[in-house]
Each structure stands twice: as structure tokens, then as C-alpha cells.
Design the sequence.
């Protein structure tokens, strides 16, 4: 037990220090003091190489800052919260293409003019995450009017309310309702044409993202958790449909009725995405108290994608695979990207925390060692995002259209919390005084 505790403690310290360095990088380099919001196209040393603003990444950074502020005492600084509020205001003013419509842009100019719209739900999803997390940390009187209380540690904000700052729980819920309508009722508002030759397919990303929103909005809110309980179960079942070929493969795309599609689309696999879906599902199963689902998720969404996706020659997770072992058509298929490894770290540590299976802890160590060795930049901070198959840096940028202040700090923050909880279970009991009853040994892991 001493060796186990030492290993967990060492990793907790590494993760904690790295989280501090990563957050410092974004705090120093990404804030747009003139127009609000965040620069995400950052070079190795943090220099801005493009001032376009991607709504996915704006919402993610607002969410990340608020989550850090809410969960970690050392990040509870006015600068972090003010930056999150400024990012939230930028989203409220500019994210929607044609208010009061809900459709959000994908790319904005630096001053908030829309450039491009995606025909998907993802800008809206990250907008919802940002608004909900902002509501949780602001503690403004307007949020109490909604009938919900902010966290008890939030002290009242001095001075008048921010008249132009409107994110409320209602803001997040209204956008959530629109997203659910697009997904389950009528997708025409997304603007996708219905072409006769297009296969009726479902990407795993859609129910995954909805399940994540169910967790976000329902946290510590029994009313909303009850409202979205059926949706959460629906999302879980839709994700499970992606386990195909007698349980031997997780496919990224399936038909609307849960069957395998033909061609490259049907054979497409994304190991990192399967692992991310795994911890989304595992969190859902834990909260439902469903041991059968928990075991199934660990087997099919953690162990199975890792066995097929880990490069036996160079280490790291392949980005894409073909279920038949054919050559994938994506040029980057063999590259090693930052986010699958971040998601794998979360998934294996969560799996171990829940099951106590030492295999999962070993896999966490394996992935974490590779990730810290290959992606981390000890000179300038943050992580490189794109490596060759051999693990060499392919792109020196630290941020871009898809990489921002999200996957890396979310991984580190969640792992720090889980490692701390595991260490708490292993904490030696205090020596009993004379006449005191014997202490009950701490359990080694959740069962």
C-alpha cells in the first residue's frame, strides 16, 4: 500500500504542477483586453498568429475558467472570474448569428462578426456549458430570481449588477431545449439539406455531447436532473449502439436504427472519442447506480478501444482506424493528437476509481507517462497538439481552430481531483487513544 500511495502522490503532484503551468499559459497569452473573448491561435511561445475566434473554443474556455474557479481554492481569483465573465459577455453579444434565433456561429472575427456557421449542434453545446457554469459561480441576485441558488461559498458581488451581463440558468436551459429539439424532433433549423443519396447515419458525437450536457445542467440540481433523466438514458442507449460486430468494435458512425453502415464511413473508428464516450457513460452509470452498465462500459469503451488503438511500435493512440484493418483515408490517421490522450487519462483513472481494477491504474500510468513525455513543452508551457506517429512534434502551435483551453486543463483538473480522492481512501487512520475502538481500515478503491 505504501508503494501505491507513493505512486499516486507523485502523479498528483505532477498533475497539479502541470495544471498550474497550463492555466498560466492561457491567462498570460489568450485574453483579448480590447474586444473581450479569447485568442486561441497561439504559437509555441504564446504569440497570437491569427485573431479569429472560434465559438467552440470561446465557450470551452469560459467553462474551464469557471470550473477551475468553482472547484479549486487556488484558482479562486478575481482575474480568472473576470476573464470568464468577459468571455461570457462576448458570447452573449456575438455568438448567435441572428438573435433571437438560437443558431450560433462557428467562427467570428476578433470584434465578433460572424464568418462561418456549421450545420451541427456543437457551437450551441459549448455555449450552453459556458452559460451554465457562469451561473454557478457568479452569485448575482438575478440568478436567485430564477429560483436557484449559486454555490454557498460565493459572496455577494459589491456594487450594482452587471446590467449587460445576462447569462442565467434559463439561458442555458433554453439553448439546451433548442439543441434537444434539433436532435430528437426536427433538424431542419441546423440548415443541413436532405439529399437523396446521403445515408441516414448517426455520429457518436451527438448523443455524447447531449449526455455531457445532461450531466452539466443536472449537477446539484434535482429538478433539472429529473427533467433530463429520460434524455440521459436515451443518450446512453444511442452511444451503446456504436458497439458493433458482436461487441468487438466501437464504430464512430452507425445507421439511425443502430446498424453498421457500409464503406469507409461505417468502418471509421476514433479510439480517443470512444474513450471519451467511455468516461461520459461511466459517470452516467455511477450516478444511476448501475453496476452492469459500469462493467460493460469499462470493457467496451475503455479496454477495447485501447487494445486496438494503442500503437505497439511507437506508443500513443492512433487518431483514426479502419475496423477492417484497411488503410484509413484521413491523412492524419497515424498521428498522435493531444486530446485522445487527455481523454484516456481521465477514462482509465475514473475506471480505476470506480472498479479498483489495477489493470486500469496501470493503463493510466502508461498513457500519462507517454503523454507527459511527448506532448508537454517544458520551455514555454502548455502542450503540443500534433505529433507524428513516431512521437515527434509535427506542429509547434499551442492553439488553433480546434485546440484551446479545454482538453488539457480539463484532464489535469479531473485527474487531480480523482488522485486526491484515491489518496484520501488510502490515508492511514490516526492512532487510537487509550480505550478508543480500533479504526476501520480505509478501502483501497471503490467497489
Sequence:
Amino acid at each position: 500500500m505504501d508503494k501505491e500511495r507513493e505512486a499516486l502522490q507523485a502523479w498528483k503532484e505532477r498533475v497539479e504542477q502541470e495544471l498550474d503551468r497550463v492555466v498560466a499559459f492561457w491567462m498570460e497569452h489568450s485574453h483579448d483586453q480590447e474586444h473581450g473573448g479569447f485568442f486561441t491561435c497561439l504559437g509555441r511561445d504564446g504569440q497570437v498568429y491569427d485573431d479569429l475566434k472560434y465559438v467552440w473554443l470561446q465557450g470551452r474556455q469560459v467553462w474551464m475558467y469557471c470550473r477551475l474557479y468553482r472547484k479549486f481554492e487556488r484558482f479562486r481569483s478575481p482575474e480568472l472570474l473576470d476573464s470568464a465573465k468577459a468571455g461570457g459577455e462576448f458570447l452573449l453579444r456575438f455568438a448567435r448569428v441572428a438573435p433571437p434565433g438560437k443558431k450560433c456561429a462557428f467562427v467570428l472575427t476578433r470584434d465578433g462578426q460572424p464568418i462561418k456557421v456549421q450545420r451541427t449542434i456543437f457551437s450551441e453545446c459549448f455555449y450552453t456549458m459556458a452559460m451554465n457554469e457562469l451561473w454557478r459561480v457568479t452569485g448575482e441576485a438575478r440568478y436567485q430570481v430564477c429560483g436557484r441558488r449559486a454555490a454557498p461559498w460565493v459572496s455577494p458581488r459589491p456594487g450594482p449588477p452587471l446590467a449587460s451581463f445576462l447569462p442565467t440558468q434559463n439561458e442555458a436551459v433554453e439553448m439546451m431545449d433548442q439543441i434537444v429539439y434539433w436532435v430528437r424532433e426536427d433538424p431542419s433549423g441546423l440548415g443541413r439539406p436532405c439529399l437523396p443519396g446521403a445515408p441516414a447515419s448517426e455520429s457518436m458525437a451527438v448523443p455524447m455531447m447531449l449526455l455531457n450536457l445532461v450531466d452539466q445542467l443536472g449537477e446539484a440540481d434535482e429538478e433539472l436532473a429529473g427533467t433530463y433523466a429520460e434524455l440521459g438514458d436515451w443518450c446512453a442507449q444511442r452511444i451503446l449502439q456504436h458497439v458493433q460486430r458482436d461487441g468487438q468494435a466501437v464504430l464512430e458512425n452507425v445507421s439511425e436504427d443502430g446498424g453498421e453502415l457500409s464503406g469507409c464511413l461505417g468502418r471509421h473508428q476514433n479510439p480517443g472519442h470512444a474513450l471519451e464516450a467511455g468516461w461520459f457513460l461511466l459517470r452516467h452509470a455511477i450516478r444511476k447506480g448501475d453496476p452492469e452498465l459500469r462493467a460493460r462500459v469499462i470493457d467496451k469503451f475503455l479496454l477495447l478501444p485501447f487494445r486496438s488503438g494503442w500503437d505497439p511500435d511507437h506508443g500513443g493512440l492512433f487518431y483514426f482506424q479502419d475496423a477492417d484493418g484497411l488503410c484509413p483515408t484521413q491523412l492524419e490517421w497515424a498521428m498522435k493528437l493531444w486530446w485522445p490522450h487527455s481523454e484516456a487519462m481521465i477514462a482509465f483513472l475514473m475506471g480505476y476509481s470506480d472498479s479498483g481494477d489495477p489493470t486500469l491504474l496501470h493503463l493510466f500510468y502508461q498513457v500519462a507517462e507517454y503523454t507527459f513525455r511527448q506532448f508537454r513543452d517544458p520551455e514555454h508551457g502548455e502542450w503540443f497538439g500534433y505529433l507524428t506517429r513516431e512521437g515527434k512534434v509535427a506542429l509547434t502551435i499551442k492553439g488553433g481552430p480546434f485546440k484551446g483551453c479545454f482538453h488539457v486543463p480539463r484532464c489535469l483538473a479531473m485527474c487531480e481531483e480523482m488522485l486526491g480522492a484515491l489518496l484520501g481512501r488510502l490515508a492511514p487512520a490516526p492512532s487510537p487513544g487509550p480505550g478508543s475502538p480500533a479504526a476501520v481500515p480505509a478501502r483501497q478503491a471503490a467497489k
Summary: Residues 66 and 315 are 34 Å apart (CA to CA).
